[in-house]
């Protein structure tokens, strides 16, 4: 192939490779399978040597498991400006370097971080992008070599782990399976080829790479030649034989360029395999050309279906977003307006809840009324106990008698009797407060209730209120003249003590009625309405110099789902745009 034709071929191929790399860079592969080449092989099949020859860089090699994480190898041919440059990325890390000798150590470091030091494997992807004028435009994913027997501390199920990881890649119809098989082994026993046949029984998307042709036994050449010429285990994409650097050549520091020349000389001089050169079924150079063309053909074939898959994903994602509650806008101006509206809606809801206009879940006012009723019942139940106060209790209180004559009472006696009984209501009142605190928090209510009991110790009520209660008990009508009231009491009650007790009962009923309403009113005002007011003030203060992004960040499952859907929707939108422009 002359240089002009080869250059034209590269120009026609490059856009397809770039398109898939672009789709992968925006994350389409997280939702949909993209056309790619997966490289698989048994341990010591020569897989690393093939990739090394294709990329022109020294990759980790040795005995046992060398590739412990999927390695995406993106080769990009550049014509000017760059001699050699690489970018290694995994998770959120990215490292750029221009010294090709650092590749092996960087990959080992990444594998140790992802899979741990030792011989374990990990399914997280490491990406190595190589830009050089000496590479072909090609993207490959190198997968761990298949180990049959665990050694050197490997997990007992290491074979299952590796096969499970490999299957995830090769079972996808968008993947071309590149199976590396040594010529000096029985191909029928190769695990890698068996796995490829299981997921691709017709061999439509499998290409076989035969390595180590210099190590075959004499007399087996024709048998190997039949395999390469697709006569033994037919594969639609066929086979290619390659001879890469061996360990001895690496130790002798034979360069990759020299190894390529040695490879061509080997096939030209080989009496059986010489014919493969003319059939383009031998050498790394032929392999690179074949893989690139296979990948591009696969991309062309997959693009219409991929475009339809992206369209369907876009519809599904939009439908899923509709099922989520509306979230905050992404732009700063819209986010600030959304925050303001959200706060105002919250304030309106709090106000409606505090006034009993809005019921969300359990009825707050219904809960409070239940507790207030218990309080009212308790107060009414205390009336008989007060009425049953004995004359002995009154007599005991003659300790407060001053210089008044026998038969006349000291006001202090009346006051002490009432204060004693009113004080018994303080604990139930605090109990009511503590029960309500389980629903609403507000310290001011506790202070106001204590103040109310302090005021009740003053033993005061307006004369009309007292006379109204007196009328209800005596069934008589009174004016506000003191002497008239005194005469009625003197005539109605046989002893002064009975009169005192009756007067105390009248006032206690006034206290009961007052407390029955006052406590619920204080709780409603200070524990409910003022709490709502304070909440409203606090919420409005958030708008002053607020970090809108931080305030609108959602940690709920719905919020996480919505953010994920938005991210996926955006990458699908970009993917559709890229494919539409390309097609």
List the helices and strands and how they pair.
Layout: H1 3-25, E1 36-41, H2 47-55, E2 71-77, E3 85-90, E4 93-97, H3 103-115, E5 126-132, E6 138-142, H4 158-170, E7 175-182, H5 191-199, E8 206-211, H6 221-228, E9 239-241, H7 247-251, H8 256-269, H9 275-278, H10 284-323, H11 332-354, H12 364-387, H13 391-396, H14 411-423, H15 426-437, H16 443-456, H17 463-474, H18 482-492, H19 496-541, H20 548-552, H21 557-582
Radius of gyration: 45 Å
Q: What do the pLDDT scores average to?
A: 80
Strand content: 5-15%
Which strand order spans the largest sheet, edge to edge or round the barrel? 4-3-5-2-6-1-7-8-9
Order of helices and strands: HEHEEEHEEHEHEHEHHHHHHHHHHHHHHH
Note down, in words, how this protein is organized:
There is one protein chain. With 583 residues, the chain is an alpha/beta fold. It is built from 21 helices and 9 strands. The chain has helices spanning 3-25, 47-55, 103-115, 158-170, 191-199, 221-228, 247-251, 256-269, 275-278, 284-323, 332-354, 364-387, 391-396, 411-423, 426-437, 443-456, 463-474, 482-492, 496-541, 548-552, 557-582; strands spanning 36-41, 71-77, 85-90, 93-97, 126-132, 138-142, 175-182, 206-211, 239-241. It has a 9-stranded mixed beta sheet with strand order 4-3-5-2-6-1-7-8-9, sandwiched between helices. Strand 8 (206-211), helix 6 (221-228) and strand 9 form a beta-alpha-beta unit. It is rod-shaped, with a radius of gyration of 45 Å. It comes from Cyprinus carpio carpio.
